[in-house]
Amino acid sequence: MKIAIFGGSFDPVHAEHINLVRAAAEKLQADKIIVVPAFVPPHKQGKNMAPAQDRLNMCRLAFAGIKNCEVSSYELNAGGTSYTYLTVEWFRRKYPDAQFYLLVGSDMLKDFYTWKNPEEILAQAELVACNREGDKVNFRAEQIRFFAKFRKTFKTLDYVGKNVSSTETRVLCAFGEDLRPYLPADVSDYIEARSLYRVERVKDALRYMKPARRKHSLRVALMAAGVAAKYKLSEHDVIQACGLHDVAKSLDLSAPELAGFSPEEEVPQPVLHQYTGAYMAEHTFGITDANVLDAIRYHTSGRPNMSVLEKVVFLSDMLEQGRDFSGIDKLRRLFYEDLDECMFQSLKHELKYLKRERRDIYPLTEQAFEYYKENRSL
């Protein structure tokens, strides 16, 4: 009997999860595929996660039409941090005569070396990996590395998954975007009915923005949410700050929402909206988190000694995929490697541009540049 186990947060389960299961069923000729939603995946803390029961229900909806596929609540019932070696061990005891496979995406394959007790997993199951568009994992090189470490090989699927990310799906949901291109209709309807992945006041703030500004804010949130886990940030806070960062961009100071706002002295017009945005976030939308408010308040100028959230929002605003200027690819690479160096190089680029265009330079931006120049790690 051949059994393939497919674990993950499934937060939410999307079309590529389903396609991977179908491809594995055909490749392995599996008698059973067991989908196992994790209670708390060790690499997912800080995510804007849906409740465990909702993720289980979404998986049951998504995989209902696949023959010999069952959704197990084992890890959800066990509670605590979900470790794959314990899950495989449990199913091995349940099906002692079965041949087990463990399905992983290329991103999980690269991280497998950091999993808890990977040798115990490989003693009980064979890894089966699927590549994903854009990942560009060299499976031949990875096989050499894998064998050198574990003295075992892994299987690969011919199927290459589309580059669909659960993180991106959660951001799209928070912004009220149509999820049907990425999720099964039943799952999309379930998310809507249960109001999952909502982030307070983001959709309300978008009503103040023109379509182009809304698209920009979405791209900023997508970029920032993509590094939230890496930099140990709350995904909720990241999405909220990005969703509201430009909320006052189109408002005049005479707008009712800005009654009581006192602008800072000598603030250049392109910088002013960071202050009016923070004011609106607090006084119109009721945001009380100081970290979120400061990320909005300094997203254009920067400042010395910024918090990680402030840096991520500042840089995502400058480097989101809709931007295009000389040197942006280098800055984007730094964004994923070294935030402080990225801040230094980005501020350097910004000041050079402002001087070349003879624009007003806000003192806080110069102070931020000097701070990151003095505190470079290189």
Low-pLDDT stretches = none
% residues in beta strands: 5-15%
The CATH class of the largest domain = Alpha Beta
Structural class, judged by helices and strands?
A: alpha/beta
| CATH homologous superfamily label of the largest domain | HUPs
- Main sheet attributes: strand count, strand direction, barrel closure: 6 strands, parallel
Q: Total domains, how many?
A: 2
The neighbouring-strand order within the major sheet is 3-2-1-4-5-6
Helix content: 40-55%
Mean pLDDT rating: 94
Secondary-structure topology with pairs:
Elements: E1 2-8, H1 15-28, E2 32-37, H2 52-62, E3 69-71, H3 74-78, H4 84-94, E4 99-105, H5 106-111, H6 118-124, E5 126-132, H7 139-150, E6 155-161, H8 166-174, H9 185-194, H10 202-206, H11 211-225, H12 235-244, H13 269-283, H14 290-297, H15 308-319, H16 328-335, H17 339-356, H18 363-374
Parallel strand pairs: 1-2, 1-4, 2-3, 4-5, 5-6
Function: Catalyzes the reversible adenylation of nicotinate mononucleotide (NaMN) to nicotinic acid adenine dinucleotide (NaAD).
Pfam families: CTP_transf_like (PF01467), HD (PF01966)
InterPro entries: Cyt_trans-like, HD/PDEase_dom, HD_domain, NadD/NMNAT, Rossmann-like_a/b/a_fold, YqeK
